[in-house]
Amino acid sequence: MRQMPNILFVQTDQLTIDVLGAYGRPYAVTPTIDRLAANGVVFDNFYCNFPLCAPSRASMMTGMLASRIGAFDNATELPASIPTYAHYLREAGYYTSLCGKMHFVGPDQLHGFETRRTTDIYPGDFAWTPDWSQTGFHGATDARVLTDSGVCARSVQLDYDDEVSHRAVQEIFDCAQRDDGRPFFIQVSYTHPHDPYLCRQEHWDRHDDIDIPLPRTGMPTAGENDPHSRRLLAQHGFDKADVPDEVIRQARRAYCGSVSYIDDQLARLLAALGESGQREDTIVIFTSDHGEMLGERGLWLKKTFFEPSLRVPMIISAPGRFTAGRVTTPGSLVDLLPTFMGLATGGDRHAAWDDAVDGLDGADLCPIIETDRHDTERQIHAEILSEGILAPIFMIRQGHYKLVTSIGDPDLLYDLGSDPDEHHNLADDPDHADRLASLRSIAHDKWNSDALANAIRLSQKRRHLIRGAHANGTSPSWDYHPAPPDDSRWYRGHGNYNDWAMDYLPRRDD
Prior knowledge:
single chain, 510 residues
């Protein structure tokens, strides 16, 4: 493998590890993901840093927690002045291309990508700005996401992701013909298996002989449930919905069908790498922006720090560089920027990349993979700063313990080693008082909750004013519209026809 390898970064939306065979729960049929995992490096404890689409992606791209860059919710702008991994890789000599969803908000819809092959699927303006001054927030999703789940012939999300795959495959083949000598970084970002829980018949049928179980943890009673979970249930109307088991099974099976659809798309991308002669020179990385509760504790979707929502798959396939295996050291999406740069720059195999303009919250995972796969005490940090909360909510994982803390809500403390499904809150257990105090001290030193809450409220007020102003007269559009396809590759009668028709890679050996 050359010193600066190609990198294909495949990202899904709302994919929980709870249905993946690579993580011990083979409910979704995913032969391609399974092979990638078997031949790659699998992170057993990998997390998002904000279980919501846009903030998660913004923190991932910048290597910094959302609170540091003002990415508070699904309608906050990622400042164009903050470098992303696309900027760093491009400065290092990479061609950078994006195919698919990134949920950028604001006039900058590239953030370092030289090329963007598709539009986005969600609005690029401030339309989804929360308002903490309002009470009784209700989410955009309701119980129909369950009652109307199942099989569909088409959906807007299928149309979108089919287009993403088509453009991404073309981009891979186009890169095989590039003559500027630059390696590529292509990010392919899908919206599946994000709700609604719908899939094609062929993907539904693949699960005929699979017993997809009901959630392991039922909904706690109102008195036993934590306040944030109660708010989430109310937001989406699940607190009063009587959802029978057959509807839950239907939604979970359709979700697994969507995951199988993603598996097919990954197979298309890997086939294009092989057919274009680039597989051996390309590192493939597979992950998600956040997880999915999928009915655990009566919760669906995300925006909670319980493991199904927070934990995501992370697989790195780098033949010739990393030996296949599993990493128990915790990691998170903010580690991707320095890891991409560590993979790109090579050098001392045990030296971490650390040349960022900003002090990053993530770290290069390459030395962790190469030298020590069992640093279980490494801290992971996450935030929820969006709608439906009383104050910023913070999460710290260290060792087997996870703390969830927020002003106005009681603390949650779980021992993930003995209680992986988070049944038993240990925050009031005297035997764990020292552990609770230690983690609370870390949170206190890391975040200023009052100052952050004030910044969030000010940001919301600014965006609501701007959106109101834009409603008067002609409103600017920040939605991204890709340039029309380049038709210069087609034959126009200049030069020899066979020279044109046969000028494609891979070529036959002489």
